[in-house]
Each structure stands twice: as structure tokens, then as C-alpha cells.
Amino acid sequence: AHLKVILETGELQTYDNVRLASEIAMRAGVDFIKTSTGKISPAATMPVTLVMLEAIRDYFYETGIRIGMKPAGGIRTAKQALAWLVMLKETLGDDWLTPDLFRFGASTLV
Fold first, then answer.
1. How much is the pLDDT for 51?
2. pLDDT attached to residue 53
3. How far apart are CA 39 and CA 23, in angstroms?
4. Higher pLDDT, 100 or 74
5. What pLDDT does 60 receive?
6. How far, in Å, CA of 29 to CA of 26, rounded?
7. Cα–Cα distance between 100 and 49 in angstroms, integer?
8. Which residues of 35-45 are buried (b: 16+ CB within 10 A; e: fewer)?
9. What is the DSSP letter of 45?
10. Beta strand pairing status for 32-34 and 4-6?
11. Which residues make Cβ contacts (< 8 Å) with residue 68, sequence separation at least 6?
């Protein structure tokens, strides 16, 4: 079983707070960090997701531990999903392009 923490990034107000919450969750031993429930706006935005991906990258460089990522809310089209996948690949590399480390939290994505 995977331990997932939902950060509810729309409530955190600043990128620094998103970064700090990501770091705290990872140091506490989570397997996955998720942007939000998708019910509070803004949910998964590209800038917030990038902050979280960079935190995951830096944590991996420091510890060798891979943490998964799940953006949720606001990703509704294949074109949007591709943009997130490109950002993931450019930030974390091919190893994260797997359902064990990256999933979309999108009920309307076809």
C-alpha cells in the first residue's frame, strides 16, 4: 500500500509554502504527494506542480528515494495531460513515467 498526502495547494497561498509542505510530507515518509482533492480552486496548476516536482527531484538527489506525484483538478484534456507529462519528464526524467510514480487525478480526462 502507498501512503499518499494531499497538500491542498490552493490553500497554501505561496510557492514557498507548497515547497515546504512537500518537503515535510516526504521527510515524514510518504510515497506520493498530491496537489489537491480537486475541489478547491486553484487545484493542479503548472507552476504549483513544478514546485512539487522540483522538491521531489531534490529529495531524490539527497536521499535516493523516489516519491510519486499526483496532480489533481483542472486537467481535463489530453493536450493538458501531455503538458504535465513533458514537465515531469524534463524535471524528473524517464524513471517517473510510470503509474507507480505518476498518476493523474482527473475524473473527466478521456
1. 97
2. 97
3. 23
4. 100
5. 98
6. 5
7. 17
8. bbebeeeebbb
9. -
10. parallel
11. 2, 4, 31, 32, 33, 96, 100, 101, 102, 103
Amino acid at 84: W
Model confidence pTM above 0.85: yes
Using N-to-C axis directions, what is the helix angle for 78-92 and 46-63, rounded to 10°? 30
pLDDT digits (tens, 9 = 90+) for 9-64: 989 989 999 999 999 999 999 999 998 887 777 778 889 999 999 999 999 999 99
Cell of 28: 515524514
Judge whether residue 107 has pLDDT over 70.
no
Domains and their CATH numbers in the chain: 4-96 (3.20.20.70)
Q: Do 73 and 105 touch, CB atoms closer than 8 A?
A: yes
Burial class (CB in 10 A: 0-12, 13-18, 19+), 2: exposed
Residue 27: count other Cβ atoms within 10 Å of its Cβ.
10
The pLDDT, as a whole number, for residue 81 is: 86
Give dist(CA 59, CA 19) in Å, integer.
11
